[in-house]
Amino acid sequence: MTNPFEDPEARYLVLINDEGQYSLWPAFADVPPGWEVRLRDAARAEALAFVNENWTDMRPRSLIKAMEGGTP
């Protein structure tokens, strides 16, 4: 069986959490708590392209805020 997180033929969701971190998620699986859908039912290549285009700063939001002098 192919890993559902790496199957090039599968359909994916792109998720984001409160820290601004993205994740590819198999479209058939329930979205885990704390995550919301940003892109639905996409081919793996399309989902990866979306993440690459939109997740330009890998730091969690709380770290960005702390580095800018705010409170985490």
Automatic annotation (TrEMBL):
Lineage top rank: taxon: Bacteria
Ranges for domain MbtH-like: 3-53
Signal peptide: none
Alphabetical list of InterPro entries matching this protein: MbtH-like_dom, MbtH-like_sf, MLP_fam
Pfam families named among the record's database cross-references: MbtH
Transmembrane segments: none
PANTHER family associated with the record: ENTEROBACTIN BIOSYNTHESIS PROTEIN YBDZ
Protein name: MbtH family protein
